[in-house]
Design goal:
The chain is built from five helices and no strands. By secondary structure, it is mainly alpha-helical. α1 packs across α3.
Length: 146
Amino acid sequence: MDKETLVENMKVLLASSYSVALKAQNYHWNVTGPNFGEYHTFFGDYYGSVYDFNDLYAEHIRQLGSFTPGSLERFSELTKITDETAVPGAKFMMVRLESDNKVILSILKGTHAAAEEFGDLGLVATLEDAIRFHSKMSWMLESYLA
């Protein structure tokens, strides 16, 4: 695995992760209904944690000697997450977030394999932390929808 391929994987991860965090923040701001408090807290915790990972991804792109994308236009070119322009109901918010979380997990696993092949153990550890977080969120989101 060459460094440039790893950097490109990281940029897609950052853009996609930023997109899912922004979507969860939108849901946090706009959720309504009888379970408002629970959903509001869940979405807030989710996007807060994802934003923390985004900073680590961006810093690692810089450590690899590349500049980090930082505009909405560039993120929209790179992301694998579909934008949310409407304000859906609470259940649909959970459905969309569950689906998007799976996309993030897939990107994380591919990037993890690339980082392992490249031999970047610091990045491998960061990605393993993110995989653990998103795996936990996956079963939690599935439980909300059961």
